[in-house]
Specification:
3-stranded antiparallel β-sheet; Transcription elongation factor SPT4; Spt4/RpoE2_Znf; RPABC4/Spt4; alpha+beta
């Protein structure tokens, strides 16, 4: 069974890790530049655009969760990542997605819930 997954960054690159503000997947800036976000590239459009990576990801996140089987993991359900690819996810991400992405989500009838675990509206 073949399932998409994100790469696990090597230890020397750990200080460069960034978390996607929309889905909270953790990757290196090079991975975001080369592949984009494996979960929400359609909305975030980071592939090949360093400025967009800076706006749509952050280095300010807490905790890391390794998700191996997102569809059956209770942690994935709790983190709202059960429909995403396998990979490393931040428990909490500080920051908000860009306004254009939030407007696109709204136009699709999707309510944006920030991943910093606050009740921000």
């Amino acid at each position: 069974m073949s399932q998409a997954q994100a790469s696990i960054p090597s230890q020397p690159r750990a200080k460069q890790l960034r978390a996607c503000l929309l889905c909270s997947i953790i990757q290196t800036p090079a991975d975001f530049r080369k592949h984009g976000c494996p979960n929400c590239e359609e909305l975030m459009q980071m592939k090949g655009y360093p400025d967009r990576i800076g706006a749509c990801t952050t280095t300010y996140f807490d905790g890391i969760i390794a998700v191996i089987d997102p569809e059956t993991s209770w942690v994935s359900r709790w983190q709202r990542t059960s429909k995403y690819v396998r990979g490393m996810y931040a428990v909490r991400v500080k920051g908000r997605i860009p306004e254009d992405v939030e407007a696109e989500l709204e136009s699709r009838g999707i309510k944006y819930i920030p991943r910093d675990q606050t009740d921000m509206d």
